[in-house]
Amino acid sequence: MTSGIQIVDVDNVDSIDWPANEESDSTRRYVVPFIKNGSLFYMDNADVRVMALIIDDVLMPLVLAERNYHDSNVCSIYAHYVKYAVEEIEKLDNRPLAWLLKACSLPFALILKAGRVDKVIYVNNWLLSTNPCSELSPEQVGTITSALKLRYPDYAIVFRSVNTYTCKTIFDSLRENGYNMVRSRQIYILDTTRKAYWKNKTVKHDRNLSKRMGYEIVDAEQLTGADAPVLTKLYHDLYLGKHSLFNPQLNENFFHLILKERVLEIQALRKNNRIDAFSCCHSNRKVMISGFSGHDTQMPLKVGLNRQDFSATMTRAKKSGRLLNLSAGAGSFKVFRGAEPFIEYDAVYDNHLPFHRRLAWWCLKSILDVWQYAASLLMHNRRP
User: Fold this and answer.
1) Cα 334–338–342 angle (5° rounding)?
2) Which of 74, 129, 329, 330 has the maximum number of C-beta atoms within 10 A of its C-beta?
3) Distance of CA 59 to CAs 6, 22, 26, 265, 272, Å?
4) Distance (Å, rounded) from C-alpha 262 to C-alpha 240?
């Protein structure tokens, strides 16, 4: 016991009295294999130490990272804010602008490295692009912060995937305890209970697409470990092949884990005994999070695998009565179907760190705040 919390690692994982509730049990079945086998067994670009944190009846993954400049953006601040961003810059058609932005990113990158921004203890980091929120009180956040400062005095403390809509309780608790909100990305959230959404003609068209294309929607109960290789390939082809190698490189062991433990909700599109697309969600009492997906990128666009999968996910969220966090990317696609944009933050506590470490975080937050303000002005000026 440390200041009201327990830290679970490989040395004591088999002797812990785990919280007895459904959400904590699901978390335990996910995080214990990571603790015992190591993160690289499940993710090829996450060289971190995975532990767990228990406070009261809440169990959360705990990730210790240090100088992971080449790792995934889910466990490397530098990869998320510099390397991933540079990849996006390189995709710009305007070459002079791309060159200018890359040149400007160099001093920024040096500041972050000098400030050792990747020396972080992450709270509730599932090593996925979007994490579920825990509704922690200000007192619980204070207890966690004090304990982690004492145990890891040279590490910044970071809560990922915080927003003001679905994570309002913990957002306020973190702010009350002196955490700085560093803009991470724009996400999209959909309230599927709104009647306007289901009257949308595009949404109706999407719902009918699977029937026209002859696909069957199958859930986790109809999937087995034998499906892990194809799920891995579909994920890699989309997230790594089409997008970025800084996305989590989930491997076949990871898919075997989630299929065996049923800790994440999987659905797939199957036709002629072949899986061509799938999506994976994480749910709590109020919110369903669209975590990651995959589809056959060689299929013709008219088949609409992404649209079919998106529609099936919307239907599941509606049936469960939950809000749907659609994560980031494909903004116009999601907004056109009724989702609303929100800013997602990394909540950072660095008050205990030396000045040069805090300066790096201040520079990061300031640059992103200015960028957000400039972008909002640009959008405002474009309105008729």
Assistant:
1) 70
2) 74
3) 9, 11, 9, 19, 41
4) 24
Longest dimension (CA), the chain: 64
| 374 has a pLDDT exceeding 80 | no
Pairing label, strands 216-219, 274-283: unpaired
Question: What's the Rg (C-alpha) of the chain?
Answer: 21
Cα–Cα distance, 183 to 214 (Å, whole number): 42
Q: How far is CA 58 from CA 50, 157, 178, in A?
A: 17, 18, 22
Secondary structure class of 328 (helix, strand, coil): strand
- State the DSSP code for 164: S
Per-residue tokens: 267: 């659905």
CA 378, distance to chain mean position in Å, is 28
Beta bridge partners of 63: 50, 122
**Eight-state DSSP code of residue 56:** T
Q: How many CB atoms are located within 10 Å of the residue 112 CB?
A: 20
Q: Which residues touch 75 (CB under 8 Å, ≥6 apart)?
A: 39, 46, 48, 63, 65, 68, 122, 125, 127
> One-letter amino acid identity for 328?
A
What is the C-alpha to C-alpha distance for residues 235 and 229, in angstroms, rounded to an integer? 10
Query: Could you tell me how far CA 155 lies from the centroid of its own chain?
Result: 21
How far is CA 157 from its chain centroid?
A: 17
Give the tens place of pLDDT for each residue, 6-52: 999 999 999 999 999 999 999 999 999 999 999 999 999 999 999 99
Q: Please list the helix, strand and coil fractions of the chain in percent, rounded to the nearest 5, in that order.
A: 45, 25, 30
- Helix boundaries (H) for 91-186: 95-114, 138-151, 168-176
For residues 194, 200, 203 and 205, what is the CA-based torsion angle, rounded to 10 degrees? Answer: 150
Asked if 254 and 42 count as a contact pair (C-beta separation under 8 A), the reply is yes
* pTM: predicted TM-score of the whole model, two decimal places: 0.93
Cα of 241 vs its chain's centroid, Å: 19
Paired tokens of 246: 């800084």
The pLDDT of residue 379: 46
Both tokens of 240, joined, read 């790594």
Query: What is the C-alpha separation between 362 and 347, in angstroms, rounded?
Result: 13
SS (H, E, C) 281-324: EEECCCEEEEEEEEECCCCCHHHCHHHHHHHHHHHHHHHHCCEE
Classify 118 as helix, strand or coil.
Answer: coil
